[in-house]
Specification:
two-stranded antiparallel sheet, mainly alpha
Length: 191
Amino acid sequence: MADNEQFADYLGQLQEAQFPRWTDLPQFDLYMDQVIQYVNDIVTPLGFGEITSTMVNNYVKKGVIKAPLKKKYRPEQLANILVIAMLKPVFALDAIAAGIQFSLANRPVAQAYDAFILTFSSAIEQANSDFSDGLTISRVNKPDMTTTQHAIVTMAINAVLQKLLVEKMIDLAADDSEKKGKNETNHSIDK
């Protein structure tokens, strides 16, 4: 019974999480330690791993986020770091970087970031409603255990399948962009 209450508490914690929209982000530049503190205050209470300055430096080195200007990070970089922190438990950094690039195609950073946050919040609401009837985690009753086992297996399979589908869509979008770039280059050569 305690497991059920803990799970319900965690779902409630997710539901109450305040993921900042674009206008809620600090609209001024932050130093590395401020970025780390800001992001970790949002993501770690929910079970996401902490980010470190080494990780952020790696994101810069790999070109996933732009280098800081005078050791300060702009709101655009902060938004990308938040997105990375939320996706890194499932996706490799290269896949996240490609997803960010794809999301930013033909739209402002603020719009892409808000779309991500709203979608993430909506998914939390859906998960909360999926389990609002109660999921039994540790009862001796065999039908309840079977329901719990089924829910765990289903969620795990969905997570893997969704990860594979997202990565394939990103690959196809990148291939499509490369083809368009080559076609535009060929057309300009022909002229």
